[in-house]
Amino acid sequence: MSRPVTTYRGGGNVRRTFQELKRRGAQVLVIGDVPEAVSRRATRRLLGHPDEDRYRVLALTDSGVDDAAWFPGAYAPDDDEVALVDERELRGATVADTPTEPSRPETTVLRRIDAEIREWEPAETPPPAVLRVGVYSLETLLEAHGVGAVRTLTDRLTSVVRRVRGIGHYHLPRAPDTDAVAELEPVFDARLELRRAGTGPEQRWHLPGRGATGWVALGEP
After folding, report:
1. Is 152 part of a structural domain of the chain?
2. Cα 97 to the chain's mean position, in Å?
3. Crossing angle between the packed helical segments 147-163 and 138-145, to the nearest 10 degrees
4. DSSP per position, 18-83
5. Does a structural domain hold residue 1?
6. pLDDT for the residue 36
7. pLDDT averaged per 10 residues in sequence order, the chain, 221 residues
8. What is the pTM of this model?
9. What are phi and psi of 69, to 5 degrees?
10. CB within 8 Å of 160: residues ≥ 6 apart
11. Angle at 31 between CA 78 and CA 178, to 5 degrees
């Protein structure tokens, strides 16, 4: 997770709160009507500093998305410590279990990400926050399947990532006051809001019941 500012507007220690989330595996909904380049920068931060020992899984579900520059530092999709779930293999993000059963988004997205995690997963439970998972974006799935199906998908996917105390982040590039954000937010532990500002991209964090941080620059990891 990216380094937060030190205090919430409503009080409380942000650093301590984030440490608690990392210990149990935080699942983050990333929102804000921002360009893809801003989302890429946020993803590089959430996937962890390039000098940290992490295993990184990234799923790109939008056929119009460039798969370059999503990983931090010099990491590339074919490196041993990263896995790219290629959007071209997930076009439409659906596979029917049988010819008569309606296709569901989780039948490809969930299975592919779960398979990558299980292939990496060590015999003993790994330390918290070693696994980092990102999905860009939920928008494609919402347009194709609706909010009910996407809520089911994110509920199951976040459970998979929590199993190994990983940190997952899931982009929904919409404004914070939209119905889809309100519908999906309860699935997640935190919400990261992005925006463009005159000095560059900015971020602020929201934790249910604990207030929000102020806006700070969204720097590189």
Report:
1. yes
2. 26
3. 140
4. HHHHHHH--EEEEE-S--HHHHHHHHHHHT--TTS--EEEEEE--TT---SS-SSTT--TTSTTEE
5. no
6. 94
7. 47 74 93 96 96 95 83 92 77 41 65 94 93 95 92 95 96 97 96 95 88 92 82
8. 0.88
9. 65, 30
10. 110, 113, 114, 117
11. 140
| Exposure letters 174-211 (e unless 16+ CB within 10 A, then b) | beeeeebbeebbebbbbbbbbbeeeeebbbbbbbeebe
In degrees, to the nearest 5, what angle opens at C-alpha 153 toward C-alphas 194 and 14? Answer: 40
In the prediction, which pLDDT does 88 show? 54
Give the range of the structural domain holding residue 159, as residue numbers without chain letter: 27-208
The confidence score (pLDDT) of residue 92 equals: 45
Q: Give the pLDDT confidence score for residue 116 in this predicted structure.
A: 95
Residue positions counted in the chain: 221
CATH number at residue 106: 3.40.50.300
Q: Is 127 within a domain?
A: yes
Distance in angstroms between the alpha carbons of the first and the last residue of the chain: 10
Whole-angstrom Cα distance, residue 151 to residue 138? 10
Domain count for the chain, please give it: 1
Query: What does the DSSP 8-state code read for residue 105?
Result: G
* 202 occurs within a structural domain: yes
Dist CA 170 CA 155 (whole Å): 12
Query: How many alpha carbons lie under 13 Å from residue 123 in its C-beta half-sphere?
Result: 0
- What local confidence, expressed as pLDDT, does residue 99 receive? 40
pLDDT value of residue 5 = 43
The whole-angstrom separation of Cα 57 and Cα 212 is 28
